[in-house]
Amino acid sequence: MDNFARLLKESWTLVEEHRERLSGHFYARLFLLDPDLRQLFPVQMSGQGDRLLEAIITAIHTVGDPESFDEFLRALGRDHRKYHVDAEHYATMGVALLDALRTIAGDGWNLEYDQAWREAYAAISEKMLAGAAADENPPFWHAEVLTHERHGPDTAVLTVRALQHPLPWKAGQYLSLEVPRHHPRVWRTYSVANAPNDDNVLEFHVRSPGAGWVSGALVRRVKPGDLLRLAAPMGSMTLDRASERDILCVAGGVGLAPIKALVEELASYNRTRWVHVFYGARRASDLYGLAGLRELVAAHPWLSVTPACSEEPGFDGEQGDIADVVGRYGPWTTHDCYVSGSAQMVRSTLRVLAADDVPPPHIRYDTFGEL
Question: Residue 239 domain-assigned?
């Protein structure tokens, strides 16, 4: 297995810096092999189309440790039911992927690399198909927007109710969302911002400072009564109920969403674990969820919230990047740690936790990018 993983990583270095060409060749070959597949993808392939290839590449890199990633691959298969892919489509995608890799790698490609990727793709597609076959839920849920609140020019908090079928999720998980009225067949992942409930209502926090397709529509165009589509929940940033360790939660911007869900779930049963939430943003106006967090603090003596701003000198709270603030309050060696925010914020916080010698199994995190 070590040699197998080595071959995958070694061969990936031949194409890693040419992701755009790899993606272009993959889809050109895919649609040439099966023109009917084109209708499963958005009209504009830029950005969103790459997500399927990114998912395949991510899955390929998990095969070096199949037991740890078995559930990830099965969840990925369940998630891909939203695209209406079947076993025949997986086989076609495998042919297109190998052809793209060979072409972009050029003379550096060899038979060993080819066989390693062939076996890896066979392994992940088998697990993904098994996950899809075992799922008794619909490929996606229709959901109605109930409320929509704007917070500044580029952030919105909305609630939706999944219709017809119960949608099971765990606090801390994320799912894919589509706005079919504005951008059909374009999916984007968002964390659920509330704990599971009997009403089938989910809350999402969305930020779109640019012209992102799905995020832009959710912030600026969606209104109560509109219909969305939700795919199967994924993610492992969930609570370990068997743990007795105190909890550190670090949220940046709309990374607050899964942290809020975790705190809500803890509020339903926790009596013994101290929970420390650090919530950071550039300016005080970006701390849109602070009032709600303070309401939870008032109701639960085991909870504390520390807000911080990095670009507002007059802020009545902590100053600086949230990772640095967390470092000043450490050490966090004996805590379960949950981190959610931008990739840069998460990396900085993970470095702080590593310096505190927090065991990696006690750290769970999610990153948020922009579409």
Answer: no
